[in-house]
Task: structure prediction
Amino acid sequence: AQKITQTQPGMFVQEKEAVTLDCTYDTSDPSYGLFWYKQPSSGEMIFLIYQGSYDQQNATEGRYSLNFQKARKSANLVISASQLGDSAMYFCAMSNSSASKIIFGSGTRLSIRP
Amino acid sequence: NAGVTQTPKFQVLKTGQSMTLQCAQDMNHNSMYWYRQDPGMGLRLIYYSASEGTTDKGEVPNGYNVSRLNKREFSLRLESAAPSQTSVYFCASSEAGQVDGYTFGSGTRLTVV
Result:
């Protein structure tokens, strides 16, 4: 069975600092995908970044990068130069080999201080 | 705009009442999903439909039924609502192998009293 673990229920970070949100996963599938989503207080789910299990390089999307360490089964999200608008819940998620469904972690609430 | 549309956005039910949450997508995706999100928690998969005509149970299917009416529509039914089903319900759709994950609807906030 697949499992996603996010151990940081909440984090406070000063504006303009970088922040790392932790995510570890467990799966027996050799092929899988890892995602990060942002959920602002308005409630919608916003896709941020994707990493495939066979991708050699870490994924990057603007200020977001995914620090993928396959041997350690971790997929941490790094946000560079944080902004007030980054305050939100962040969810790590994983798809199975057939990409037929995604499971989510419990989330980390990130608060950016001005 | 293309996307996933959920109705209603808000609903209050009495214990024992039934209702159907509607979901429609216009992106021609094969797969559709229903999740629930409880306060302070992540999304948990209730049911999914990998393609038209098929449905499968997710992590928390008890108390729910689904219908994949056609490729566009995937409905979630609560036959006898219970307070434990108070939650925010999200519908989503995707294409297999889609690297930007799912497209989510805006959610239905359901309260069972």
